[in-house]
Amino acid sequence: MLLNSLMNLVPELNKAFLETLYMVAISLSVAIIAGLPLGILLFVTDRGLFLENTTVKSVLGFIVNMIRSIPFVILLVGLLPLTKLITGTTIGPTAASVSLSVAAIPFFARIVETSLREIDKGVIEAAVAVGATPWMIIKDVLLPEARPGIMHGITITTISLVSYSAMAGIVGGGGIGDLAIRFGYYRYDNTVMITTIVILICLVQIIQFAGDRIARLVDKR
Question: Could you list the residue ranges that cross the membrane (predicted)?
Answer without folding.
Answer: 20-44, 56-79, 85-109, 150-171, 192-211
